Amino acid sequence: MPKKTIEHVEVASSTVLMRVDFNVPLDDAGQITDDLRIRMALPSIKSVIDRGGRLILISHLGRPEGKGVEPSLSLKPIADRLGQLLDGAKVRFVPDDCVGSQATEAVAALSDGQVLVLENLRFDAGEKKGDKEFAAKLAALAHIYCNDAFGTAHRNDASMVAVPQAMSGKPRVAGLLMDKELSFLSETLRSPKKPFVAVLGGAKVSDKLGVLHNLMGKVDTILMGGAMSYTLLKALGFDMGSSMVQLGMLKQAQQIIDEAAASPTDLILPNDHVCGKQISRMTPMKICKDSIESGWMGLDIGPETVSQFVEEIRKAKTILWNGPMGVFETKPFDVGTKQIAEAIAQATDSGAVSIIGGGETAAAVDEFGLAERFSHISTGGGASLQMLEGKEFASVNLLEKA
Ligand code: ADP
Ligand code: MG
């Protein structure tokens, strides 16, 4: 069900409590190394302040102990960065407990179009515990609740669940980033245009079992590459040399193969592999057909597999991709991943809907300069994976339907 968004509510002169995901990477000196997560929240932030709303932003950052302020995990540098991104708009910061008296006073002093960033939610142990008293204090600060923290959507922290519960009766809406993520990851997957092809890869089949089970029967074809496919090939009896195989997962791998055989979903595994002796640019290389000799490891899908996968991708109207096809971080083992990325980009140009999930997969397409060419690249690692597993989130269920 689509959610009501922040754009659907009147915000002029009202106070909006917006949960965002400002959990950005910091270097040792406490400098922000990538502000993407701040920039992703800008549409929702602007939607409130441009219409004369008073905005309170709340987020966690890192993993503080929950025993009060830890200066290295303060949201102050993030508030400063936000001030730069909003071209001098008034962004204030409260260097105190996010539910302390300073915070309450600063909220009372907010005027229309201003933004207040509260300190790291996880400095208070109540956040991780989902504590109701802590939540009630946050809830009392505002008239409207907005959740734009998709990256945290799978967690039941106080700001995600107990706060909107405490604000029952008041508007509780999705932010624009949350709305976009939900519409691609949940709506598109619920009613996809067919053929629907899933491309799955990455390191460990154990990370992706839930996704595989959920997609079985829903997608027409699963194209599987990456090291995860080697565990399935091993279960089928192929020798995989010194490739990354999860020997403890052979039973589960066999179950996936059986499930695919019993369902309308076709599961296609690689039939050739680009092999090396180590993960290194300097390693000797060769193409192995079907099985891999001892002393060699599979590091990418082979050319025949690429052709077969590209052909399936060309026919698709919906494409979901999670997990690289090989060790794309080390050239030349990026070739398979790159060719698959290009095929999906071309299919998107021809009208297919393409959705990319997974941190490394997103990093790979970014590196190839193709990031603009997909319908949607999900920003939430754990949250997108769990959504692809078909899980429901309490935080999302609490938001009003459109
Ligand atoms: P994502 O973050 O996109 O969900 P994963 O975390 O599942 O992807 O897997 C990404 C990692 O899988 C990459 O670091 C890549 O090097 C590794 N990988 C892919 N294929 C292989 C392979 N054949 N051997 C070893 N590692 C591989
Ligand atoms: Mg990963």
What is the strand and helix layout of this fold?
Layout: E1 15-19, H1 36-49, E2 54-58, H2 76-85, E3 91-93, H3 101-108, E4 115-117, H4 125-129, H5 132-139, E5 144-147, H6 162-166, E6 172-174, H7 176-190, E7 196-200, H8 205-215, E8 221-224, H9 228-235, H10 250-262, E9 266-268, E10 272-276, E11 285-289, E12 297-301, H11 303-315, E13 318-322, H12 335-349, E14 353-357, H13 359-367, E15 376-377, H14 381-388, H15 394-397
Parallel strand pairs: 1-2, 1-5, 2-4, 3-4, 5-6, 7-8, 7-13, 8-9, 13-14, 14-15
Antiparallel strand pairs: 10-11, 10-12
Helix pairs in contact: 8-10, 9-10, 11-12
This protein binds adenosine-5'-diphosphate and magnesium ion (MG).
Question: What does this entry look like structurally?
Answer:
- With 402 residues, the chain is an alpha/beta fold.
- The chain is elongated, with a radius of gyration of 23 Å.
- The model has no long low-confidence stretch (mean pLDDT 95).
- Strands 3-4-2-1-5-6 form a six-stranded parallel sheet.
- The protein has helices at 36-49, 76-85, 101-108, 125-129, 132-139, 162-166, 176-190, 205-215, 228-235, 250-262, 303-315, 335-349, 359-367, 381-388, 394-397, and strands at residues 15-19, 54-58, 91-93, 115-117, 144-147, 172-174, 196-200, 221-224, 266-268, 272-276, 285-289, 297-301, 318-322, 353-357, 376-377.
- It has two domains: 6-179, Phosphoglycerate kinase, N-terminal domain (Rossmann fold, 3-Layer(aba) Sandwich), CATH 3.40.50; 192-388, Phosphoglycerate kinase, N-terminal domain (Rossmann fold, 3-Layer(aba) Sandwich), CATH 3.40.50.1260.
- Helix content is 36%, strand content 15%.
- Helix 6 links the parallel strand 5 and strand 6.
- The chain has 15 helices and 15 strands.
- 49% of the residues are buried.
- The chain binds adenosine-5'-diphosphate and magnesium ion.
